[in-house]
Write a structure and sequence with these properties.
With 236 residues, the chain is mainly alpha-helical. It has two domains: 118 residues, no CATH class; 101 residues, 3-Layer(bab) Sandwich (minor pseudopilin epsh fold), CATH 3.55.40. The chain contains ten helices and three strands; from the N terminus they run H-H-H-H-H-H-H-E-E-E-H-H-H. The protein has a three-stranded antiparallel sheet. Strand 1 and strand 2 form a beta hairpin. Helix 1 crosses helix 2 and helix 2 packs parallel to helix 4. The chain is globular and about 55 Å long.
Length: 236
């Protein structure tokens, strides 16, 4: 496992990228996931298939990955700072505890949103199958209706769009969030995440977000999404 991970890093430009952005503890964790280290989050490597997509360039993915690693490092930094914060000074107007906990929600949101996003890219697009398709048709009327709503929500969002299953309502919905920490809707689990921040598409499309969303759909790996769906608390 260690050698194969090193080989992947060496074979792509992510080798220099990861070496430059991940500190020693994070790199050690990536190569030795069983060891105990004082870190909360460890950056995951991009899949090789995400570096050769049609419509989303390798450069865009590499630059995007840098931002994600920044969220990982900042999340760990904030957790470390919280270990020594003065709890006696906590108040709702301003205090170090308040600042750290608010910013942690943004940083951790950046980690988790990007991990969903990167994980289900590098596919062949198309549409899902099986039970997932049945639920989408049930909740949106048709796959085409879901896709129209999802794309339109992407044009309306300032940050993220999630296809998520709301366990309380017992249905799927396309949620919109304008910031990394604008989610969650409690008890709603996202299985698709679309990043609509400009950094996700500007190098390839400038301000043409619509074309980027089309490219995202063409490169979506529905098998990964179906795997997330399989883990939902839905009676079958």
């Amino acid at each position: 496992m260690k050698n194969s991970r090193r080989a992947f890093l060496k074979a792509t430009s992510l080798g220099a990228l990861a070496s430059g952005l991940l500190d020693a503890d994070l790199m050690a964790a990536a190569e030795n996931p069983g060891q105990s280290i004082p870190k909360v989050y460890v950056a995951k490597l991009l899949k090789s298939s995400t570096l050769s997509m049609e419509g989303i360039s390798k450069r865009t993915m590499e630059e995007h990955y840098k931002l994600y690693v920044g969220y990982v490092n900042k999340s760990n930094e904030i957790h470390e700072a919280l270990r020594n914060v003065d709890l006696s000074k906590a108040n709702q107007i301003y205090s170090p505890l308040r600042v750290l906990k608010v910013e942690l929600s943004f940083a951790v949101g950046g980690v988790k949103n990007h991990e969903i996003y990167f994980d289900h890219l590098g596919g062949k697009g198309g549409r899902p199958g099986g039970k997932l398709l049945e639920y989408i048709v049930r909740d949106f009327g048709s796959y085409e209706a879901w896709e129209r709503d999802f794309k339109a929500t992407g044009l309306a969002a300032r940050g993220w769009v999630w296809l998520a299953y709301d366990a309380d309502r017992g249905s799927f919905f396309n949620y919109l969030g304008d910031a990394q920490n604008a989610y969650p809707i409690w008890n709603a689990v996202p299985i698709v995440a679309l990043d609509t921040y400009e950094h996700a598409y500007y190098l390839d499309y400038a301000t043409d977000r619509k074309s980027y969303i089309e490219a995202f759909m063409r490169n979506l790996d529905w098998s990964v999404v179906e795997g997330r769906f399989a883990g939902l608390p839905i009676s079958r």
